[in-house]
Amino acid sequence: MGRFGNLLMSAILCGCTYTLVAIGYCLFFGVLDVVVFCCGDIAIFGAFSIIGAYTIIYSAGVFQAVPTIVAVLILLIIASILCVALGLITYRVSVKPFEKSSALMPLLSTIALGVVIKEVLGLIFRPVVNSAAQAATRVDDPKTVVGGRNPQSMPQLIAANGTTLQRNLIIIAVVAIILLALFFFLNKTKMGLSMQAISQNKELALMTGVNVKSTIRWTFIIGGVLLAIGGFLLGNYQTIVRFDGGTMYGTKGFSAAVVGGLKSTWGAVIGGMLLGFVEVFTAGLVPGGTKFQNVIAFLVVIIFIVFKPEGIIGEKVAEKV
Amino acid sequence: MKRKVIAIALTLCMVGGLMLTGCGGSGGGSSDGGGGGTVKLGFLSPITGANAAEGAAARNAFKLAIDQANESGDFDYKIEMIEIDDKSDPSAGVAGAQKIVSDPDVVAATGHWNSGVAEATIPVFKEAEIPLLIWGAIASDLTSEENYPWITRSAPTDVQENIPLAKAVLDDMGYKKVFIISDTTSYGAGNTKAFKAELKDRGLEPVGVEEVQEGTVDFRAILTKVKSSGADCVYWGGVVTEGSLLKQQMFEEKVDALFCGISGNYSEDFLKIPAEAAEGALVVKPGIVLETTDAGKKFIEDYEAAGFSEPIGAYTPYAYTAAEILLQALKECGDDVTPEKMRDAIKDGSFDGIMGTTTFDEIGQTELVAAYLNVVQDGKWTVYDDSEYASGKRAFPGK
Amino acid sequence: MKKNKLLDSPFAVIFCNLILFLLIYFTVMSEYMISLAIIAAVIIAILVVNRFDLINKIFDLYIRHKKTALISALVLGILYPFSLTDNVYVAHIATLAVIYGIACLGLNFQMGSTDMTNFAPAAFMGIGAYTVGIFTVKMGFNPWLGMLAGVVFSGVFGFLIGLPTLKTKGYYLSLVTMAIQLAFTELVRVWPYVGGDDGMSGVQRYKLFGFELYKRYTIFGIRMSPQIPYLLLCIVFLVICTYIAMRVYFSRTGIAMNTVAQDEIAAMCMGMNVSRTKLFAFVIGGMYCGLAGALFVGLEGYVGPATYNFQKSLMLICMVILGGMDNSIGVVLGAFVLAIITEKTRDFADFQQLIYGAVLVIMLIVRPDGIIPWRVRNHDLITKRKPKILERFKPEEDIAEKAQLKAEV
Q1: Residue A120: which of C179, C190, C354 has the nearest Cβ?
Q2: Could you tell me which residues are beta bridge partners of residue B236?
């Protein structure tokens, strides 16, 4: 692979990580009509829960006995359950109380909740995981957890013994499979169609007998699983996870969702890829451009909001009175 | 009603969380009278935020020295330490510095890992006429004629640290095509400047210069630039968090170049990446090899015996040295300690410590500059002179 | 309305001011446990008192006895700095609180009055601060000129940010301001001219007719902290800013801002100039924040990127919500409370961000209006002496009523 190929690979991977969190925004925005800003923090929480679960279960000597793929599945299920629970808490605490108030209230309160999530993560991760890992019979120490606020190294579970290229291809393939599954879910199942119906017209959906409550619950379940997988892939790609990484990750994901069009899942994919490409190519091709990569990414976002606020995919909607 | 229930539940969760982490233990802020029997020393370091590991370890070392002094019975008064978390944030640092100088018992302070924070608090200490001994911030302009004699520094500057590294890499090993990567913090910018100057002295130009934001995790785009520039050496002018990732990604992307950097990378955290990825990283560390002297060995033993949760970092011995300097200065001042007396005692004195004998030059910069090279060998930091690289068994990449 | 005689006398006003003064004094001076207890007690007291509508009555009282209130507040405000004597740390916190108060008043124009969440108040402060820094350190000008330029620049910057907002709203606006805040910090960090990450130190301090405003003075044999004269200056600025903010609030523009917040389309249909109103909110808010930034530099003598980052913006937003949106007094109170809490809980620095987040979440659920909530304008009181204004209001009366009605609902 030449230089361009390397850059292309980096850009696609970077875009993939943004895409997953952007889809989270889209799902929630579509069904609830509010921006759940702590998506990035939930994904980081997922990554941390994988690190914690891995440390504890490895200490207990379970993973040495099972093949990697089973271990990955176990970890993903644990992380998904935790992320879904966190998503539902988010809904209960920061979204539902503001159903009738200004749309900016849930935005503010989810930002605040995001701060709470990451700070609690930084504070209690070490005591909880360390003592639990010690309680388990230690076979040997896989990854020491030094402190919740320090960067945590992610256990390398994707293509653990393979090359970097293999790992990258697996990550891209997993994202593609998730996208296809999501597409199938949204367009072929009853629940997915209900979500789309609510997204288009909530009242009409209610009238035609769509169960809004259970749809919202399902949205958070799907979103939680997506974000858990997103955190897992992000951690494997970056090899370390920071407890406060969710803010930037969430802001970039939100930007990607807005660039693509807030209500469109495909828009999120395109927006995420666009941001990934802009960042990586600025860093890779412009001499001394690395320090401006975030600034340029945000500039692109601002230009889009000003000139095409409905996003790349998205219809202009006249405001209803 | 439901809202109230949620709110109460949240509050309870918060209180529970606080208890879980045992914040109760850190009571802090004790102000038992003060006066005659106590002398206070201020200590500023980042205990939260991005540089928490290094800052907390330094705080531990300082505390260790103070505790030892109190136990030894050499002082008629009790020495107390006011520890301030500057969060690597200049505003927080200034407020903390104000807190220190407003205490009438304070006679001296030592502080700062971040040069930007030091830059902001130096005026506060100068105004309040309290001597500040810098233990960790390395920007070369912090000690200057204007700041002398209130501001002194026991750590080497970025210029002083880069000299031995440049000598080893450029002169002894003969690397010519250096690609400089640093972060945008003042630490990174200072290093870039210092190393560029070293290159220029030898008639060389860096083949590329890139700056990344603090907290960057993805260096792959830059590495394609490194590859196409044909560099045989990558100089990393940042700290360990990003440095270890850069080294790992260099390994993954098969960049055939030497990785070198300065003391910010010397940390156990660097070894968290796989051993084969970390292999061959060359880092200069100021000071002396602690294990070779009795005082150094004793420090390591005491530190480990005290059971701190943070391991010893590259600058932890310097924080300990700063404490040793202040304590010896206190002794010289006798029973009636004032900030003025401390200032004179510090600037004129010569102090024996775990790193050797410290004296200060005419702008308050330490004259004790020692440094040695370290290399990662089989997942462990090894002193370069003892390593298989020096003996020729292994070779650095890019040759 | 039946009037309680004691509650209506000018003495009541002086009494209220005295109590406020003593509360602020003790909160600032005492140990952290005591001051936190005082803050908690005050907040609970306000919430309880609010049940009996006493807050509104006190507000009415102040407006009725405007002169007494202003003069007694001014006297106490001038005495306040001297009461801090030589405690440098306390004087520093007090000055910080006053400066944050000014910034929050600015943010309140956008967040409170017009319901446009601006996530970049710290960037505005940064522009004010950096202008002073560049003017004094790099160009050698007088810092007052720097302050003036800083205020103008941040106003212009507000105008420029305001322009795209005319087309966008809600989330899009929030994202634009967030992006600007993040980009601002990163840009000044890599700009070598302003010192990069090191920032600029040695910014010239303000002087007034040769009288240095940041210097130790000895008055009646008592050695004062160096911040005292500067704190006085900041208090004067805060009083002026609060006065202007109140005037704006009671003016047609203030009502127009509220109307835009309630229903933009309705406002447009009624022939209001929505763009002008929004731009006004951005420009005046930007200027307030710029002023706060310029004062901040005068206090610290240092300007650097880490001081004006996203966290600072969140803190300012938190202050506004805590105090009470669209209520100038409430906003200033919020700034005081949070600034003091921040410094007093320094020993638990690990938990500070968590406390911000948790306070915000709990506040939004329990009391989204803040400690002292939005108040229905009482035009009877203001217009009693100036019937001219009343006439000018006539054509807009239904709008004002609508705004009131909506707020009551």
Answers
A1: C354
A2: B181, B261
